[in-house]
Amino acid sequence: MLKDEVPRIPPSVTYAELRRTAARLRAGKMRGDPRMPPNELADLIEKSIRQDQLVRGVLKADREQTEFERECERKDEATS
User: Fold this and answer.
1) 22 exposed, middle or buried (CB, 10 Å; 0-12, 13-18, 19+)?
2) Residue 28: which region, alpha, beta or left (left: phi > 0; alpha: psi -120 to 50)?
3) What is the per-residue DSSP string for 17-79?
4) Which residues constitute the domain of residue 32?
5) pTM of the entire predicted model
6) Could you tell me if residue 48 is inside a domain?
7) Looking at the domain assignment, is residue 8 inside a domain?
8) Which residue, among 29, 22, 23, has the nearest Cα to 44 in the 3D structure?
9) Residue 50: inside a domain
10) H-helix or E-strand containing 16?
11) How many folded domains does the chain comprise?
12) Is residue 64 part of a domain?
């Protein structure tokens, strides 16, 4: 089960941009939220990436499974 403990990634932001942001935070080249240490914010960003990749992978697998099932149904109907 996915927990909503990490922020969602906006569609307009790439993983590469987020990884660069995390690297800059860790290197001290950029300031983040003053309420959170930079390393923790970088960890949160990377966790968001992993969660987003997981969700996208599950959704893709579900779409592929649905398409496979539809194709099987079409073939069954054609042979009936």
Assistant:
1) buried
2) left
3) HHHHHHHHHHHTSS---TTS-HHHHHHHHHHHHHHHHHHHHHHHHHHHHHHHHHHHHHHHHHH
4) 15-79
5) 0.74
6) yes
7) no
8) 22
9) yes
10) helix 15-27
11) 1
12) yes
CA angle, residues 67, 72, 75, in degrees to nearest 5 = 125
What token pair was written down for 62?
């579900």
Ramachandran category for residue 36: left, alpha or beta (phi over 0 → left; psi -120 to 50 → alpha): beta
**What is the pLDDT, as a whole number, of residue 5?**
63
Write out the two tokens for 14: 């790439």
pLDDT per residue, tens digit, the chain (80 aa), is 445 566 778 888 999 999 999 999 999 999 888 899 999 999 999 999 999 999 999 999 999 999 999 999 998 888 87
Q: Based on C-alpha coordinates, what's the Rg of the chain?
A: 20
d(CA 37, CA 31) in angstroms, rounded, equals 9
